[in-house]
């Protein structure tokens, strides 16, 4: 899959949820994880993060929105239940993205929502656990941007193999000019 993604949380109230989110991000191949306005207890988070994501994935801590930074070209995608949010199944993920979830109690602040390029919601009847929401977003990114065999029409596993990419012989300008000369002489 081309591109990269990172995921983080603004103002979490439970360190275990941050640990779960970071562990899941590590499993899905996140390029980085972050906290924003967080009082994150690393020891408590480590109880849920058995993969030690901060030891394997770049981890950033931003004290406030003014200090928040993303790589050039990276789009910020907020995950929040709002009336005007895009439903996740209809959202096309940016190739370079950072996803941010809000705190368990308050959600994403208006300030963070204002700097998001997109705000996406998971179409559920009510709010789900922070770690679950993050996992759903990362899984949706994987199945929509990754290379997978097509789903079968009926139940069960795919009946078709994933097509392997076919590459032709490299075409160099010199060979191209020689072929054009030979064709023009004929």
UniProtKB/TrEMBL annotation:
Region described as Disordered: 149-186
Q: Which CDD domains match?
A: SpoU-like
Chain segments annotated as transmembrane: none
What GO molecular function terms would the record report? methyltransferase activity
**Signal peptide residues on this chain, from the entry's feature table:** none
**From what superkingdom does this record's organism come?**
Bacteria
Known Pfam families for this protein? SpoU_methylase
Q: Which example biological process does GO assign this protein?
A: methylation
Where is coiled-coil annotated?
none
State the UniProt keywords alphabetically: Methyltransferase, Transferase
Compositionally biased intervals (Basic residues)? 173-186
Q: What's the name of the protein? A: RNA methyltransferase
State the organism's lineage. Bacteria, Pseudomonadati, Pseudomonadota, Alphaproteobacteria, Hyphomicrobiales
